[in-house]
Amino acid sequence: MEQDTHTPFTINLGWVHPRAIQALKGLTRDQLDGRRKAGKYIEGVHWVKDPVGTVMWHFENLNSWIEGE
Questions:
Q1: All structural domains of the chain
Q2: Which InterPro entries would you find in this protein's record (predicted)?
């Protein structure tokens, strides 16, 4: 993959709230939960529950899943 020389750095978002996924990727909470419950996303890789029980999503790992990696 050719590196973009115009971008001096990359920001990784890591674990984010489903609202961030919807705003930045266009996937709704219903779509995320449906795919999670169907076993398409892996716990600990694509999603985790935070200490209060909210499902958080790993922004970059979802990219890999979407791209088929």
A1: 15-66 (1.10.1660.60)
A2: 933W_put_Xis_sf, Put_exci
